[in-house]
Write a structure and sequence with these properties.
Layout lengths: L9 E4 L9 H9 L5 H19 L6 H13 L8 H13 L9 H7 L3 E6 L3 H11 L7 E4 L10 H11 L6 E5 L14 E4 L20 H8 L5 H13 L10
Parallel strand pairs: 1-2, 1-4, 2-3, 4-5
């Protein structure tokens, strides 16, 4: 069918929260005497500062901003250890995160003909450790980081960098992210987005509408395939061949 969109050549996964479980990080805050809620403020604030640096034409590594912001937020907290030990405890927990479950769906997307990569605002080595612990590191052909171009997502240049590294056009890529803001920049004909803000959380009005809010692609990657997975693989293959009806593999 001429109007049937092709299965994306490259599926680009965000890493932080999209493929990782942050609950262990929240527990690390509690361990040092802070509240678990401070973890969310820490993560949002470090992203704010990183976006501001990118907008100003400069950049800094995730680990540096995360460390500095953590020290700022913990300064007003009565900790059960000195601040250096508290920071080390939280940051080591962040680096040791795991996927919620074995990402069994990665093999399904590979079998359907998609190339899988990650693009993280953090370090590529952190993504490598996460996927290795999940047992699917070999399913991803490249683990990319914004540290290389010096442009934090959602700066358009970060996605152009990913497309260049993959040797393809950005229109042939699909972004999977749990953060609506992450999908702000990659727009244009054929540039697909999958996203979910999580159960019960609406997408902000200022954020772009993803092609689907139902996070099945994320579910495939993070939680493994549902029992009907073989049927869905067939549908994905037909979608790539242009023989499936519009809507195949779009939910």
């Amino acid at each position: 069918m001429a109007d049937t969109p092709a299965l994306p050549e490259v599926v680009v996964f965000d890493v932080n929260e999209t493929l990782s479980d942050m609950s262990a990080v929240r527990a690390r805050f509690s361990d040092v005497g802070a509240t678990e809620q401070l973890a969310g403020l820490w993560f949002a604030t470090l992203l704010r500062d990183a976006f501001a640096l990118t907008a100003a034409g400069t950049s800094e590594r995730f680990a540096v901003i995360a460390d500095g912001m953590l020290r700022t937020l913990l300064a007003g907290v009565e900790l059960d250890r000195d601040v250096d030990d508290a920071v080390q405890h939280v940051m080591s927990g962040f680096r040791a995160r795991r996927a919620p479950r074995r990402p069994g769906g990665a093999a399904l997307m590979r079998a359907a003909g998609a190339r899988l990569v990650t693009l993280t605002n953090g370090g590529a080595s952190v993504a490598e450790g996460l996927l290795t612990r999940a047992g699917v590191g070999d399913q991803f052909e490249a683990l990319l980081s914004v540290e290389d171009p010096g442009l934090w997502k959602p700066a358009p240049g970060s996605y152009r960098y990913a497309a260049s590294r993959c040797g393809t056009d950005i229109a042939a890529m699909m972004l999977v992210a749990v953060h609506p803001l992450t999908a702000t920049a990659p727009r244009g004909p054929g540039c697909a987005r999958r996203g979910s803000t999580g159960p019960g959380r609406p997408i902000p009005r200022t954020s772009p509408r993803p092609m689907s809010r139902r996070p099945r692609w994320r579910t495939w990657a993070v939680h493994g395939a549902p029992r009907a997975a073989p049927t869905r693989v067939t549908s994905a293959a037909k979608w790539k061949q242009g023989t499936a009806s519009p809507g195949s593999c779009t939910t």
